[in-house]
Amino acid sequence: MLATTASRNLFRVAGASPAFRSTAAPLFSQVQRRFLQTEHLTTKQNLALLNEQRLRRPNSPHLTIYQPQLTWYLSGLNRITGSALSGVLYLSAMAYLLHPVFPAIDSAHVISFVHDLPVWLKTSGKFIISLPFFFHSYNGIRHLVWDMGKAMTLKGVYSTGYAVLAATAISSVAAAFFL
């Protein structure tokens, strides 16, 4: 770095006086040398080197450099629960549409199947089914509050996030045990 700066300054001096330019310029043209050379590889060697480098590369470095926070957990869970609820809706609609082909899937058979299950399985099933429903519903209300411009501070975002989690837990337990 120092040699490059020194040679650049000397070139400026040499360029300033025409008498000095012709004698000094060839002396300073060899100051900077690069000892690195590119390695010539065949296409097969190049592809093998590239694949080896890709194996050592992390999959998602953007996830490993950030500290996990409540905000992106709730955002991801909102998307996951929305996808799961819509998937269940579509599958149940398809089951009722296929009722003429598979007559065992109707309301009477489903009710008798659920009635014959043990109480602990029905209670845990109601809790598991109600948890994503209540979370997605309460988080949707949270987003509607944000759409109105309320609770947009960091403290407001965290307080509404904790409120969504508390309301989800209370509602899911109430639905599982009291409905």
From TrEMBL:
GO biological process: mitochondrial electron transport, succinate to ubiquinone; tricarboxylic acid cycle
GO molecular function per UniProt: electron transfer activity; metal ion binding
GO CC aspect terms: membrane; mitochondrion
Membrane-topology annotation of the record: Multi-pass membrane protein
CDD domains linked: SQR_TypeC_SdhC
Residues that span the membrane, as ranges: 80-99, 119-135, 156-178
Protein name (record): Succinate dehydrogenase, cytochrome b556 subunit
Organism field: Naganishia liquefaciens
Lineage, opening ranks: Eukaryota, Fungi, Dikarya, Basidiomycota, Agaricomycotina
